[in-house]
Amino acid sequence: MTVAGVRVAGRYRLGSAVGTGGMGRVWLSYDEVLRREVAVKQIVLPFGLADDERQELRQRTLREARAAARLSHPNIVRIYDVINSDEQPWIVMEYVHALSLLQMVSEHGPLPAPRVARIGLAMLSALAAANRAGVLHRDVKPGNVLIADDGRVVLTDFGSAVLDDTDGAITKTGLILGSPQYMAPERIQKGICTPESDLWSLGATLYTAAEGRSPFDRPTVGATLIAVATEQPDRLHRATALKPVLTGLLRKNPAARLTSTEAERRLRQVAVLEPQAPRAGPLSRKLRERVPLKADPAAAADNTPIVQVPPPPGAGGQAEPRTAVVVVPPAALRAPRSRWPRWAVAAVAATALLAPAGVAVATQLHRAPAASRSAAAPPAADVGTADLAGPNLAPPLGQPLPAGLTWWYDPSGFVVPVPVGWKALPEGPKAVLFTEPSGPGTLRARSWDRLAPDPVVAMTREEARANLRDYHRLRIEALPDDAATEWEYTFTGPAGAMHGIERGLVLGGHTYLIQWRVPEAAWPAGVADYTAIVDGFQPPRPASRSQL
Q1: What structural domains and CATH numbers belong to the chain?
Q2: Contact by Cβ (8 Å): 307, 294
Q3: Tag placement on the chain: N or C end, fewer CB within 10 Å?
Q4: Residue 525's beta-bridge partner residues?
Q5: How far is it, in rounded angstroms, from Cα 117 to Cα 352?
Q6: In which band, very low, low, confident or very high, does the pLDDT at 543 lie, cut at 50, 70 and 90?
């Protein structure tokens, strides 16, 4: 068919063919009204259908394409227009400069397991967004996964999608639409299409990306269908790190298949996005000799040493030593040759002079001090939800803070200003979430495992994983000093309209992400606090030999 110069709906000028599939052809085209490149899919209905069946399939295709057009997600190709012409339906889509995953594997061979896992995370995010809108994809396969020039992963061809309230993936004639090697067993056996069916296809797609072939690669279509329905997937040879998630997604029974949440958790581990918590090492022998430790159940929750401080001279008949919580750097707790840090000894001495008898003085790394040194600090067992109240700690490097903010010393070593009175909830070894006690505001600070070397691309991928309701991007841009990137956006939260901003920082050779979300009405007043927070953030200081 010659289509060069043909116009669809009077505005889309068709160009070269860029793809073909069971339900049509895709043409690189030009939108003469908006003056941009688009991809136009010509829907070709299967041969041999009766007139009423053709009309049924035609109307359903248009209905499903319109449903897919409602999806707005960075990992889903956008549908701009649906055209119901006299000859056949047309779907106008975003044109993505990309290679398909199938092309990439065919040209460059199997991909490393961490990269496959990151592609899988993007696809999971796309499928979750579609499911929330009531849309199933029904044809997830390597040919429908695009890897853009900037690294963006896009799931395309939602023109074959089906709404979860329609009659499934099978027509009156028994026609099943999809690719046999990537079709879930329940679709082959019963014509049933569910979100679990898309997860099975996702598993088969990731298997192909990691192994270079599908898990049910057979010489004929019939043999492939039998293998999918009755046999176990072929043994993994390359992507052994992905075996738990792939075998979990490729289970025959949909009820026993991995959920999207569990699949995401396992893929993040393979993608090195879920660092394991470091194991606490024993105190060095010299440290135990110098600092007698007192067991304390309240402090055991966070392994903070409780040190017995002898009574100061002139204390009269005091028989009981006072107790102080002393900051011990993680390096001192792990290194077998470490010495007692001189600054920590000074802290003990200061505590002994200032604290009255029998009072536990909290100078823990991860909690602000009490309102005065004569008042008891919150108990150590409450570390997960500690109130950040009272005066500021001594500012790092002499840096003061605006009123209403105080310093947070995280166990992982970073220091960040936070609003006074907000609650803290640890989210792992290098992340903490702060929440507004009487409102929806949140602040999150964490170590950032970027998904791409380019910070703007990496932030765009963070955007793809956000899954926010009524999301609208305001900007993603590199800041002038090239050491930071910002992403600003709006969305709807449980309490109404929200405004968010996230800054990626590169400090000391490490990357960090600070997230600030407040109600839209509070945004103008909160900008100053956000600026002070990101400006005051400090990474862990490297331990010097003089401190050990």
Answers
A1: 7-94 (3.30.200.20), 98-270 (1.10.510.10), 277-384 (no CATH), 387-540 (3.40.1000.10)
A2: yes
A3: N
A4: none
A5: 53
A6: low
CA atoms within 13 A on the CB side of 60: 23
Residues of the chain by 3-state class (helix, strand, coil), percent to 5: 35, 25, 45
Residue 201 burial (10 A CB sphere; 0-12, 13-18, 19+): buried
Q: Which single residue is written with the structure tokens 């849309």?
A: 135
Catalytic residues: 139
Q: What percent of the chain has pLDDT over 90?
A: 31
Name the pTM for this structure: 0.51
Which residue type sits at 166?
T
Burial letters 19-55, b for 16+ CB under 10 A, else e:
bebebbbbbebbbeeeeeebbbbbbebeeebeeebee
Per residue in 412-421, pLDDT tens? 888 899 999 9
DSSP line for 186-211: HHHHH----HHHHHHHHHHHHHHHHH
Structure confidence by residue, pLDDT tens digits, 276-300: 444 334 333 333 333 333 333 333 3
How large is the C-alpha radius of gyration of the chain? 29
d(CA 257, CA 250) in angstroms, rounded, equals 7
Is residue 314 exposed (0-12), middle (13-18) or buried (19+ Cβ within 10 Å)? exposed
- For β-strands 510-519 and 496-507, DSSP reports them as antiparallel
Amino acid in position 47: F
Of 343, 395, 345, nearest to 546 by C-alpha is 343
Give the whole-angstrom CA distance, residue 337 versus residue 331.
10
Longest dimension (CA), the chain: 104
Helix (H) or strand (E) holding 287: helix 285-290
CA 93 remoteness from chain centre = 26
Q: What are phi and psi of 121, to 5 degrees?
A: -65, -40
- CA nearest 143: which of 85, 189, 180, 101? 101
Give the closest residue to 539 by CA, choosing from 446, 458, 443, 452: 446
- pLDDT band for 68, please (50, 70, 90 cuts): confident
What is the end-to-end Cα distance of the chain in Å, rounded? 77
CA torsion angle for 146, 148, 154, 160 (degrees, to 10)? Answer: -40
Helix axes 260-270, 195-211, angle to 10 degrees: 20
Q: Is the pLDDT of residue 488 over 50?
A: yes
